[in-house]
Amino acid sequence: MAEAALRTAPLDRTRLVQWLQTYGVYAGVAALLVVNTVITPRFLTTENFRTQAVQVAPVIIVALGMALVIGTEGVDLSVGAVMALAASVTALYLGYGLLPSLLVVALFAAGVGLANGALVAFVGVQPIVATLALMVGGRGLALVLLPQLKDLRNPSLASLGSGDVLGVPYLILIAAALALLVAFVVRRTTFGRQLLAIGDSRPAAQLAGLPVRPVLIIVYVVCALLAAVAGVLATARLQASDPTSLGNLMELSAITAVVVGGTPLTGGRVNIGGTVAGAVLIQLLTATLIKHDLPPSWTQIAQAIVIVAAVYAARGRGKR
Amino acid sequence: MAPPAEVLAVRGLSKTFPGVRALDDVDLTLHAGEIHALIGENGAGKSTLIKLLTGVYRPDAGEIVFQGRKVSFATPLEAQKAGISTIYQEVNLIPLLSVARNLFLGREPRNRFGLLDMGRMNREAEQTLSTYGVRVDVRRPLRTLGVGAQQMVALARAVATEARVVVMDEPTSSLEPREVETLFSVIRGLRDAGIAVVYVSHRLDELYAVCSTVTVLRDGRRVHRGRLADLDRLSLVSTMLGRDLGEVREEGLTKFTGEHGAADAEPVLTASDLTVPHKLHGVSLSIRPGEVVGLGGLLGSGRTETAKTIAGALPARSGGVTVAGVPLRAGSTPAAIRAGISLLPEDRKSEGIVPGLSVRENIALAALPRLSRFGLVSEARVDSVVDTFIERLRIKASSPHQKVGELSGGNQQKVLLARWLAMNPKVLLLDEPTRGIDVGAKAEVQKLVDELAADGLGVLLISSDLEELIEGSDRVVVLKDGAVVGELTGDDVTEDKLMRTIAGNDPARDAGKEAAVDG
Lengths: 320, 519
Hints:
Distance between the termini of chain A: 25 Å
Structural class of chain A: mainly alpha
Radius of gyration of chain A: 21 Å
Strand order of the largest sheet of chain A: 1-4
CATH superfamily of the largest domain in chain B: P-loop containing nucleotide triphosphate hydrolases
Oligomer: heterodimer
Shape of chain B: globular
Strand content of chain B: 15-25%
CATH architecture of the largest domain in chain B: 3-Layer(aba) Sandwich
Largest sheet of chain A: 2 strands, antiparallel
CATH architecture of chain A: Orthogonal Bundle
Strand order of the largest sheet of chain B: 6-7-8-3-9-10
Strand content of chain A: under 5%
Shape of chain A: globular
CATH topology of the largest domain in chain B: Rossmann fold
Number of domains of chain A: 1
Number of strands of chain A: 4
CATH topology of chain A: ABC transporter involved in vitamin B12 uptake, BtuC
CATH class of the largest domain in chain B: Alpha Beta
Structural class of chain B: alpha/beta
CATH class of chain A: Mainly Alpha
Order of helices and strands of chain A: HHHHHEHEEHHHHEHHH
Largest sheet of chain B: 6 strands, mixed
Helix content of chain B: 25-40%
Number of helices of chain B: 20
Largest interface: A-B, 28 and 34 residues
């Protein structure tokens, strides 16, 4: 009898921790939804949900790229700068039409991604340092191209920012489509499997003949492109290009979403569903506190608690 | 003489992990000045027992009595402070700190200002290490030392901390024979100083050389304890494996069956004049289909470098490799793999397996592009390949989705073999394929190598285990200081000849004046 107790007790605890690691973030989102339904007036309205979703969409899009980079045991600090760069470049080339300007944005973003990837893959600079350089330089370039806030009057851009299909804003549709696409890439493609292997053990991946450098470069390019998409969408929603403040601290929000979503910083695992839920969790938390008129400092403290909780849950993963 | 005091007594220790009864009611008693061998196959529970003793895990049941008191260590540090030191298979020191700093880490001598007394530290470190046969500049970063020397530093550090019990988990796995001798004399010194030593090793020679008593674990239970001298090698192996004595005797200690390969076939692989600065100086060799070529030599003689250069993982300054007559682009692992060269690296844990991925993902890793269409992985094709190899190589995993990091060493090695066999290689380069894996799995891997050679693969076998090298190879190329110093063929492939070639006797003279040397 005592024997049985000894056998099951550690099992149950392990199961609980495992359950928390996998579903903790979803449980957090569900809990916040329930609490808000009870305590927040007018929470359960379509309007409110639309607002929340529109606000979180750019974070989700950036976090998707960040999750891929973190999966390779890297990190990309330059995503906020890329958003700013996308905003300036959009403003500069919008005169040629929306599509041409988007192409130029993509070129710039790919350039930043290539630089990040090349520094990491070929020069062997640590990701945090390589992307720090581009974080500073990228925003600098954005400000050189467009020194101050500029109002944009372009109907196509405006409709990208505020249009919808059957009441669902484009922003949300785009974020959802990208999340599904990235999840599919991670799970089902050769590229996704190779990315995870490289993140888990780069020497082993190298000796197994995997295209380590190309994969790393593509990952950083994809991350920059996703950040650019977020930058363009945010600009479209603002109807103004604001390279000074757009994307500020976005790298931290994205990393938070990824970590809270259960993707370990040590690489080798990417949890896309968790990343999306992580971004939503932080968004709901912030909204809840703001709606109840708590000062922004409280929001930051609450975020910190969520991060610590996520890290604590992930802690059990490394050891047994 | 009074019987030596009981230092450590373990009673009824049990530990369960999800799904596995890792240790089941195990007893262990250690006396002062006893060198106790702890053996068992991988997965028998040795590591679990050690980790329970040293506070890494907590037991589910049972008690540990240390120096007369019941103890329960919460952390390895607590155990170490109480007097139980452990030296792990992998060196756990800080690579970037100096040798002396590592040796004194956490108990550095201070001067009167409370600052580190570097002068004294370096002097004492030099003194201490010289008793371990390590003569190096102690101010150099630890990582610049060879693995063997690092192991000695770890040992010196563990012993210096007032230990009453020293646990050594495969301390010789990366040592050269000379270093092993030094280690043994240090261990005997510990014994004479009244310290109890738990010695874990797969190498039977070593056990018989230093240990007086033995505990054999199998499937988490203690199946034997007693004086080592009362148990001969075959009985020891059969106790460990739980196999019939006659069966072991009949099959021999290694699973190799001997000759294969046609002597006149065109070589499937030739390497000519491979030169890597400071590492290889013009190494040439060739392998015919179906032939197992051994690569002999001491640690640091360039065996691993030769294999890595052939596999494109180490850029050569000059020299070339051909596969089936076609020259290979140098310095490219993917090119070597496409040409049919597969390397099982020496450092299985950090260069071979991808520990966080499943058995299935690990097996399919190299072959992924072949198992995909337009970049999309075909799960059905992956499954069929994975199932085939799990069955063929008898890989023991709870399911194909179990993480490779959780498997025993032998099964990890089989997963790596499967990864390469899925690529239909022409040449297999095996760098220490059986190091650190248990006797049963070792036999299976050896048998597999034999079968693969019989199927027509060319095999390059690197092993520090002379028995394995001699019995497994048709031919042995001997390296010394990055150059080929001899080649043994046919009846010359013997342990004696190999030792003499490694030791540096002129191989030509050896061949010519055999009678004179032997007589």
